[in-house]
Design goal:
The structure is a homodimer of 391-residue chains.
Chain A lengths: L11 E3 L8 H7 L9 H18 L5 E5 L3 H12 L5 E6 L2 H12 L3 E6 L8 H10 L5 E5 L1 E2 L4 E2 L2 H10 L3 E5 L11 H4 L3 E3 L13 E5 L1 H8 L12 H8 L12 H17 L1 H21 L15 E5 L6 H12 L1 E5 L8 E5 L7 H17 L8 H10 L1
Parallel strand pairs in A: 1-12, 3-4, 3-5, 5-8, 8-9
Antiparallel strand pairs in A: 2-10, 6-7, 9-10, 11-13, 12-13
Helix pairs in contact in A: 1-10, 2-10, 5-6, 11-13, 11-14, 12-13
């Protein structure tokens, strides 16, 4: 047994997440650990809840981070809200919609799929037609920001349709929270989960979550116990709720220090400014990529500013492209997932990583590597275009 | 929205966990985040698996940390190994045995309880009698180190009985791993889970886990899908396994840096030396506590060295005792849980926190606070007794 301490290389993280973590968040995670029932810690938990309410734009009392990554946040929503036999309409336009469907099945529910082409937003009209055919559906689930394609759907419109058919909504906001508009209360969303490692500039491992009063009521009225003890919100709320804190599980203290700091940073910048910053650097990156002749996979009107899916150019081996960016430039961009593997690469500009330095560095590195891979590139044109877009 | 950065007080953590985190582990968690599919990170994952095999004393290929706290490790074992209708014998001698029973029920299994008094170890003879009455039982679940009482059970003997009745074993080693003897292969244990925040000197949030070939085979032969997508080991192994890594969930990168460093520290000290250190400081603390007239809840032969359950002295309000230790000495000790609330306090000497400084500081602080609470205390006697035990 003789391994040495691990000293990671310093990468620039421009994939689909984790994204670059803010140095203040990294520093926060190394502060001295205290107990999960320490009154000082409980005070910090209350601040996290209040700051998450701000980030989600909600007054929901049940707003907290699940002590595990985003996939566990997804599972928390389904395992608490879906009972065996329940019919759930799942909108699928990418990998994470498929994962939602899988969650419905694992809960013993029936999944009715509304399918849209990968890269397209979910079509509210199709959802409406499906709900008209399934008046006994209880829940509508959709992904606001499809991390696998970079397409964003109109969460407000989809929730409006769902409400007309008396359905609760489960919404994946893993890639949107903090990076592009999300207004839980104004849009009437019921159960929304996210991840710490995207637009919040935080390390991976936690899943912010918020549930409306309606959703909480549904959980209280369940006939069967929640299949998961660890994710049972009745129990989780005993620890995160407002009364005396009952031990449920041992919270990931230092990870929560990091999330707290990330949310303090968001408060300092202010939410709308963060959305605007993500949009601005997206436009700069886009101008640069287009100057290089690269094409977006998603049409303009449906693009997520924080996640840019780019078609792999003819004749370019995308695995080599990503490997060279990583090895020669310490720059990580993402591969395509599922049906899009090999066809697209995903360039994230998320959280702290959505900045001019990353835009210009990524464009310069892409120019060099693509040129080395024998794609005709007018070096410097991309950076000039990006500068122009920023001006 | 105006909250400030959180700067925790510097506590001495001598409760039932989290325990004091080693400074090298704290430092590791603030290293730059890299991607969860980065080849460098994948290399680090392999080292973690190898070091966990060492810590568990096993060759099991399926040995990895679950990306969530110990309760999720427990749930991983049950949700993967128990199918609806399965009969599981659960040994209950404290809070965590009860939680195991709850897990069986949530999985749709039938729980047959073998009950022992809280504070006593699980009785192998009772287990044997129960199994003789339930020849169709498929699994035996027990807690090796009951964190709620400080009692340890004979995992080897219990596993031997279980094997004679063709049962797999699920073993809670949350508080034992790294702190007191645990030999997974030699004792023939099948599914063993632990936590990062006890005797490994690491922050909370991860759950090391190991499964025998028999247990893996059982999962492969399941008739129904695993009810949890997030904890489905078939999928988790696609990411942590030895072949090409398939994305399952985003790993908690920085938390894993911390676990890696904690395991490097364990390798440097060597496992047997760590066990011996925990034992040595337990004896010192015990000598001091007894010199102070305090009494252990668990009989000598069944005590966990890393977790000392002490009877609250007549006339002492334990809530005030703990509050004063925390406020006046920044020293955290644990309350009693469940049926033992108000009756015992729990003093942990775990991981990095199992050292002479903590022993002496705890004894001195207890003397002062108990004296201030009007218990007759011969000040200094406890420290002298501890020194003597250490000599």
């Amino acid at each position: 047994m003789s391994f040495s301490s691990f000293n990671p290389p310093v990468r620039t993280l421009m994939g689909p997440g984790p994204s670059d973590v803010h140095p203040r968040v990294l520093a926060a995670m190394s502060r001295p650990t205290i107990g999960h029932l320490d009154p000082t810690f409980v005070g910090m938990m209350d601040e996290i809840k209040a700051m998450l309410q701000y980030a989600f734009q909600t007054q929901n009392a049940l707003t907290l981070p699940i002590s595990a990554p985003g996939s566990a946040g997804m599972e928390t929503c389904f395992v608490n809200l879906v009972e065996p036999g329940d019919k759930v309409v799942v909108c699928v336009n990418g990998v994470f919609g498929l994962r939602m469907k899988e969650n419905v099945l694992r809960c013993g529910g029936t999944a009715i799929v509304v399918e849209d082409k990968w890269g397209e937003p979910v079509d509210p009209a199709k959802l409406e037609a499906t709900l008209a055919n399934h008046p006994d559906a209880k829940i509508v689930a959709f992904v606001q920001a499809e991390t696998s394609t970079g397409a964003q759907s109109d969460a407000r419109a989809l929730a409006e349709v769902a409400r007309r058919f008396n359905c609760l909504t489960i919404v994946d906001a893993v890639t949107s929270l903090g990076g592009s508009p999300l207004r839980v209360d104004e849009w009437g969303l019921d159960a929304v989960y996210s991840g710490s490692q995207k637009c919040l500039s935080c390390a991976p491992g936690l899943s912010p979550l918020t549930l409306s009063e309606r959703a909480v009521q549904r959980i209280k009225e369940r006939k069967s116990p929640v299949a998961s003890w660890f994710l049972d919100l009745n129990l989780v709320m005993g620890y995160w709720g407002s009364g005396k804190r009952a031990y449920h599980h041992t919270a990931p203290i230092n990870a929560l220090y990091g999330l707290h700091e990330a949310l303090v940073l968001l408060g300092e910048e202010e939410l709308e400014n963060s959305w605007a910053r993500h949009h601005k650097h997206h436009l700069a990156l886009r101008a640069g990529l287009e100057a290089m002749g690269l094409k977006f996979y998603v049409r303009d009107s449906a693009r997520l500013p924080q996640l840019n899916a780019i078609m792999v150019p003819e004749g370019i081996n995308e695995e080599e492209l990503r490997r060279r960016l990583l090895e020669e430039y310490n720059l990580e961009i993402g591969a395509g997932l599922g049906a899009l593997a090999g066809k697209i690469v995903r360039i994230g500009l998320m959280g702290y990583g959505s900045n001019v330095k990353n835009v210009l560095y990524c464009l310069a590195a892409l120019e060099e590597v693509l040129a080395a891979m024998r794609m005709p590139v007018d070096k410097g044109a991309a950076e000039r275009a990006a500068h122009q877009a920023l001006a």
